Every structure is written in structure tokens, then in C-alpha cells.
Amino acid sequence: RSLVAAEADGDERAVEAALRPRTLDEVVGQVRVREQLGLVLEAARRRGRTPDHVLLSGPPGLGKTTLAMIIAAEMSAPLRLTSGPAITHAGDLAAILSGMNEGDVLFVDEIHRMSRPAEEMLYMAMEDFRVDVVIGKGPGATAIPLEIPPFTLVGATTRAGLLPGPLRDRFGFTAHLEFYEPDDLDRIVRRSAGLLGCEVELDGTAEIASRSRGTPRIANRLLRRVRDYAQVRADGVVTRAVARAALDLYEVDASGLDRLDRAVLDALCRRFGGGPVGVSTLAVAVGEERETVEEVAEPFLVRQGLLARTPRGRVATPAAWAHLGLRAPAGTWA
Ligand code: ADP
């Protein structure tokens, strides 16, 4: 992975945390989601009740964790964080749920990756605030019902469609987060620069915003790399020229495609003649898991008009060929 795509290290994580909006008012963009969620929370507050369960879907880095933290903060409730892959047994979930207090917010990231038995336990917990804890094995096993105080589950998933219907139906409010427009990303970059005490020019932040892949997390990460460059190789000010030079150095292209995005396009055009090709085949070609290609790379490529999902497989659009500097073979695009 390139530097820019690399997982944040410890310090970087602390910086990322410092840049998180703390209240709904600080959240940039996502106007509709903010208004809808604001109403859900305000109504619950007035009734003195725990808000309904909330499902947040959308690609990584668009603000799902941030919103979960804000839900807890706005309700003045503690937040507990876990993730689907961490809950391998129903017992793991029972342990978490039995430690909850009334009004607590439980955030389950990647909720679609929870094990089946845990999922079934969660249905009951969400609906009846009760779980059956099974003690022992085989014919001697007994189920002990356990009451759980009312809590709010906030589930996050890359695509709501990955959840089984019964689980999806138990959320009272579902929000889908979309990629951000350059204007919103620009506001996020300027807000972050202010918090970091970094001097920026308007066309400098616009340059970062336009290469951020529609994603706030990436916008903040690129800002940090550009800030490094500005401090070491220039006079500390993020101008357009500084932003361009830094982003070129880190191989973020002008459309913001990252290494995986480019690898997918490259395989699609060069190895599979532009498709149609199945997503699993494409994933093998780029050495990634199918889910990563489907849930991380594809949504952005589709939105950029570079890739199309057809019933017969994935197809490169004329723009994809152009992006790679290649000529589309005649007759590949109907
Ligand atoms: P997800 O959980 O969807 O992967 P996060 O909530 O962790 O994404 O967001 C990643 C980073 O992007 C956060 O550190 C936060 O600073 C920033 N961010 C996300 N959404 C927004 C937003 N709407 N406004 C400002 N910053 C945001």
C-alpha cells in the first residue's frame, strides 16, 4: 500500500480523532441525514426515552463512526464500540449486552460480518431487550432469559443490502451516506486545517478536496501529507502549487483514485479487454478480497462513471480507457 492509503499510525490516529466533529452542527454536508437524525434524537430527548436503533450504511471513511459518537454525545450517553468480526460467538454478544446500562449506545461496526447465532441473539435484544443465554451443551443445555435495559444500537455497514432482512427491519432509522461533493470536502479540509493550525489558501484546499475520492477521511489524510510537504519543502502555506506537488509525490491522481481503484481499472481494461468480467475474477486479478473490490473500490468507480455493473459482469466505460490513457477497442461499449 502507498503511504497515503496506509493505515494511520498511533499519532495519526490521535490527529484523526481530534478532527472528528463532536456535534451534529459540526458535521459538514449530509444535510438530509443530519436533519432526520436530529429529529430522531430530539424527539427521544423530549420523551425521555432511548432513541430507536439506527443503521448507517455507506463506504468507509464517510462518517459512520463519527455519527455514532455524536448520537451518544447528543444523548449524553456512554458509547460502547465493537465490530461484527469481533463477535464470533453469541456468547461474546451476550457478554457485551449484559454489561449495558439503560440508555447506553452500542456501536457495531461492520455489522454484516457478525456470526449467524450472534445475529439471531441480536434480533431479540433489539426488539424485546432480552436475550436467551444458553448454558451447557447438548441435551442438558438450558436457556436462561436475561433482561437487558433499553439501549440504542447503532449499526454500520458498507451496504445495507448485505444485512439479512429481519435484522434490517429492526432498525427504526436507516441512513445511507453518500460520497461528498468537492464543496463539502473543501469545507472539511478548511475546518481541519484550522484545527491543525495550518495556513491554507483557498485553491490549495480545493485541490486537496478534488483529489479526496469523495471521502472525508481521505481529505483529512491528504491534508496532513500536504502539510508535511508545505513545512519541509515550502514556507508552510498550503497553496495550490504545494498541494499539487505533494499529491503528485504521493501518487494520488487528479481524480483521487487510489492504488486499488487504479488496479481494478487496469485489470479490467488490460487483462479483460474492458469486460464484462465477474467481480470475483476481477478481485483475484488485483489480489484483493471480493468484498473489498465490491464495497470499497467499485462504489467510487461507478460514481465517477469509470465502471459499470451489468448483469453480465463489470464493464469499463470509455472514460475508464481514457483515464488510463488507452484507446477503447471498437465495439466494447454498447
Ligand atoms: P466511517 O466510520 O464511515 O469509516 P469515520 O466516522 O471514522 O468514517 O470518519 C472518518 C473521518 O472523517 C473522521 O475522523 C472525521 O474527522 C471525518 N469526517 C467524516 N464525516 C465528516 C463530516 N461529515 N464532516 C466533517 N468531518 C467528517
Structure description:
- The chain has 334 residues and is α/β, with parallel strands linked by helices.
- Helix content is 47%, strand content 13%.
- It is built from 14 helices and 9 strands.
- It has helices at 10-19, 31-47, 64-74, 90-98, 116-128, 165-168, 182-196, 202-210, 216-233, 240-249, 259-271, 279-286, 290-303, 318-323, and strands at residues 54-57, 79-83, 105-109, 130-135, 142-147, 152-157, 173-176, 307-310, 313-316.
- The strands form 3 sheets. It has a 5-stranded parallel beta sheet with strand order 2-3-6-1-7, with helices on one face.
- A hairpin with a 6-residue loop joins strand 4 (130-135) and strand 5 (142-147).
- The longest helix is centred in the C-terminal third of the chain and has 18 residues, at 216-233.
- The protein starts with 9 loop residues before the first helix and ends in an 11-residue tail after the last helix.
- The structure holds adenosine-5'-diphosphate (ADP).
- Adenosine-5'-diphosphate binds at residues 16, 19-21, 27-30, 60-66, 156, 188, 216-217, 220.
